[in-house]
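Exercise 7.
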Amino acid sequence: MVKPGAEIEEKELSRVKAHCLVVNIVFAWEQAIAITSTEDEKALVSHRFPQFLFHDDMHPDYFRYAILNDSFERHLWLASPSGAGRNKTLNVGTMLEYSFTLPNKKEQEAIASCLTRLDSLITLHQRKRRKRLFTHLLVWEQRKLGDCFDFLKNNTLSRADLNGENGIARNVHYGDILIKFGDCLDGEQSDLPFITDDTVLPKFAGSILSEGDVIFADTAEDEAAGKCIELRKLPKEPTISGLHTIPARPRFPFGTGYLGHYLNSDAYHRQLLPLMQGIKVISVSKAALQDTQVRFPSLSEQSAIGVVLSEIDALITLHQ
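Solution. The predicted structure, written as tokens, is:
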């Protein structure tokens, strides 16, 4: 309770407006930032919580997700000079210099709607999972990656050994995994290069790629090393894994799309960071991958997660 005479005068406070960006200028570096809703309307905040209206061509719900961007989080941290303890006052002018990639308003609304549905699905699954946890003591299974996959052979062909026109076999190059491909690869729709030398294929007869296999790029110039693709479909020609890649085949079925998204998630990729080696070029070894932990729910839940995340990937690609 506030003692009589100690009340804060209302003139020192501001009323919250719905659908605004509000920031705590002392703890913005910890992402104390939000988009207000109608439920917040008419609440009172001090001068430490400035509010910002959106332009007419901006959809507030889109920014509920845009402000979660790692790049924006770092920008807030850099825009908050050090202070005493955890208090680091935000330079609002510096914050407002940040640039967002912004589609048109209709596309913003569509993206926000899709992400909101995903949030609802995750919440629903969390509720179901908690219920099962207490009634059946079920949890996501966790195993070492080396216990879940068998590793295949890869070739060492450079770009000069490949072509885009013809050949009896196709090749997956690590550079395409890092830059060109998403989490899951539809080999029928992509232009995987051909291997120029037809004598290469027989050497990899036991390592022809199949649907459901995953391929890691073991080398990159930064922490992208370890990026992975899951093979959804493959071209009619036999396909093998190329230079600086680690192909792996699951020992038991996974839901379509689950591995591609999970193995590229922060939850998994953070395990790789302390295992990376090199200075100018960063690499991750097969031995390091084998000891990482893979977590997965039931097969039906894996499939549901794969479907939802793949739909979001398709929506993003459509609007790029």
